[in-house]
Design a protein that fits this description.
alpha/beta; RNA-binding; globular; single chain; Gyrase A, domain 2; 5-stranded parallel β-sheet
Length: 588
RNA sequence: GCACCCAUAGCUCAGCUGGAUAGAGCAACUGCCUUCUAAGCAGUAGGUCACAAGUUCGAAUCUUGUUGGGUGUACCA
């Protein structure tokens, strides 16, 4: 059986259609539109299909007439308890109890692997995320892209892709000179003890002082006597290394570890820029030209000048893009072309870039590059992460990297905890802006979904450990429980929710929408809390029933399955599941 | 000007790539603790899915306009 029960029944339905209408040639794209999904209203059953509506046109028959034929055969399927026609021609399926019990059994057997699938067929995917310039610590906006990229990579891994988590280090551009110059001033400050004013345009952040101190420890006063030409390479090197260490420790704090760091300097050093541009040139996509001045924005210093351009308009971009500056050096874009060329040559046909919304204007040209360089063999998917509005008690925290007093990622995570931070970063789709109120995330109330979900996991743990202590049932004793004893509506609702995970992960992977797993885990917690409370109003529905060891074991099995699914969902989110909630603890 | 994104209950947001009577949470109101954690549950009330056309059996979802907000807009990265 396909782990994704919706695909499973979709296949069954399609087979039945082929049997029922053998003379009609139904093409694949049409059959793919035939769905099996859970109806909005549970009163409509467990599964609904739109098959007869889709088939109306090719069969030139009324939907209800088609449905009647299909229903007859669907009713013969073992796992289908009943199939009936409803509304404009939907077929509602009610699945048998034994099907649900068998599904629960599979979920229990799968343990933390439940939800995994082979959708990706082991294909290679490169997910590039964060890629912040090595000029300072990460701030909160970086944190959003970081979590979304990380979780998307986790999801894709879970659904069967061979995923590489990657960080592109912009260590070759002008901002590195700015970094080095700033570092020199701070170094001078440390060495001479004289207060230094950081001029406009350099990085005023105080983090540079610590770096300068370390530099001074290593080099003493020796750099003071050197010429700029001599000390700049040393400072660049030291600055980049220090900043990368800083960034990596921020990432570690956020629970993120990239597989690969690719440096811009190494791309340039391997002459990949020349190679990639030659490839484009051979395709006639590089030319010398003059761009029009941009409209709607005053540019006092604009002047027409010939530049080396990439014909990105060929692939849907708004204007062609410069790859060389007027002084003949590469633009930022050129090494990035080479970098994507490198990704493709490393065998990635699925390339995903997670960027900040402020890079929105960059999307079309980078997609154009990948399409051109791969001759349409690779696909580049760019996800933009909208800004995070950081609040504390309703008041806005302004973040500006230039000012130097921006709110760092470290600062925020230290206040709310890694788990809560990640959980909240996944609460909105990446296209939409996100409000993040530090006070609310710390708040230990039902207002806070992190606690709601963790509480459900803690409850699972609590029952299971209680049962274990009482010797009623340990986890090992639970295997082989008679799951058919689970017949209450609330129990079945939980089994059904558990069974959805594979589909949720597949769809999150396909659509690259990480918020889906967030909402799933909240829903799952809700269904579990609901079941828990049926035991409050009716003691016969509690998990542990004196004198009924078999029933108790069956129910505890369901609890165990729930605990596992909660945990594996949280694992994908990079959030640590918690066994016991204590007051005043920050979630890790 | 142009490009990309957003607009759903009083507030914060879901809505399973086009399905049935649009759903949660918060706030409001009503119930449920001699109970495996009430940090929870059940219920009531709350809607012109920004607006207008179009596509079709069927639209919050797709197309095109319009309005309002965000972001970006040569030789920065």
């Amino acid at each position: 059986m396909n782990m994704n029960i919706f695909n499973h029944f979709q296949n069954i339905i399609i087979e039945i259609i082929k049997e029922t209408f053998p003379d009609v040639d139904l093409d694949k794209s049409l059959l793919e539109r035939i769905t099996a999904e859970s109806p909005r209203d549970p009163a409509h059953g467990d599964m609904a299909t739109n098959a007869s509506m889709i088939l109306t046109k090719p069969l030139k028959t009324k939907p209800r007439d088609i449905a009647e034929k299909l229903v007859k055969k669907l009713n013969e399927v073992d796992d289908i308890q009943s199939a009936e026609i409803a509304g404009p021609g939907f077929i509602n399926l009610r699945l048998s109890l034994s099907f649900w019990h068998r599904t629960l059994d599979i979920i229990l057997d799968s343990g933390l692997k439940w939800g995994a699938s082979d959708l990706g067929k082991g294909e290679k995917v490169n997910v590039e995320y964060v890629s912040a310039n090595p000029t300072g610590p990460l701030h909160v906006a970086h944190g959003r892209g970081a979590v979304i990229g990380d979780v998307l990579a986790n999801i894709l891994t879970k659904v069967g892709y061979d995923v590489t988590k990657e960080y592109y280090v912009n260590d070759a551009g002008g901002q590195i000179d700015v970094l080095a110059k700033t570092l020199f001033l701070r170094y001078k400050e440390v060495a001479t003890g004289e207060k230094v004013e950081i001029p406009e345009g350099l990085y005023p952040g105080e983090y540079m002082i610590d770096v300068a101190k370390k530099l001074h420890e290593q080099q003493g006063d020796s750099l003071l006597n050197k010429s700029e030409e001599e000390y700049m390479p040393i400072l660049r090197e030291f600055g980049i290394d220090s900043m990368l260490d800083l960034i990596k420790s921020d990432l570690a704090l956020a629970g993120i570890k990239h597989d690969v760091f690719t440096s811009e300097r190494s791309i340039v050093g391997r002459n990949l820029v020349e190679k990639a541009l030659l490839d484009l040139e051979n395709q006639g996509l590089i030319y010398e030209g003059v761009l029009e001045p941009p409209k709607g924005k005053k540019l006092d210093d604009w002047e027409a000048r010939p530049q080396t351009l990439f014909k990105s308009t060929e692939y849907g971009d708004d204007v062609d893009r410069a790859v060389k500056k007027s002084d003949g050096t590469w633009t930022y874009f050129a090494p990035d072309i080479a970098y994507h060329y490198d990704k493709y040559n490393r065998g990635f046909k699925h390339i995903i870039d997670i960027l900040g919304a402020d890079h929105g204007g960059y999307v079309k040209r980078i997609k154009a590059v990948v399409t051109a360089l791969s001759k349409d063999q690779a696909h580049c998917d760019v996800r933009l992460c909208q800004m995070v509005k950081l609040l504390k008690g309703g008041e806005i925290y302004k973040m500006s990297k230039r000012s130097g007093n921006f709110i760092t990622l470290e600062h925020v995570i230290n206040q709310v905890g890694t788990g809560a931070f990640r959980f909240m970063m996944l609460s909105r789709k990446s296209d939409a802006m996100l409000d993040f109120d530090i006070d609310k995330v710390i708040e230990q109330s039902k207002d806070n979904p992190v606690f709601y979900v963790q509480y459900s996991h803690a409850r699972c743990h609590s029952v299971l450990s209680l049962a274990s202590e009482q010797g009623i049932a340990s986890e090992s004793l639970l295997s082989g429980s008679d799951l058919s004893l689970l017949t209450a509506e609330s129990e079945l609702a939980l089994i059904k929710k558990l069974s959805e995970l594979p589909r949720i992960l597949e769809q999150a992977g396909i659509s690259r929408e990480t918020q889906r797993i967030h909402y799933y885990v909240v829903e799952l917690a809700s269904v579990f809390h609901s079941l828990w409370n049926t035991g409050s109003s009716d003691s016969k529905l509690r998990f542990i029933i004196d004198g009924e060891p078999e029933l108790t074991k069956a129910r505890l099995s369901l609890v165990l399955a729930t605990k596992n699914v909660l945990k594996s969902s949280l694992d994908v989110m990079g959030v640590k599941a918690i066994n016991e909630l204590k007051s005043n603890t920050i979630l890790e």
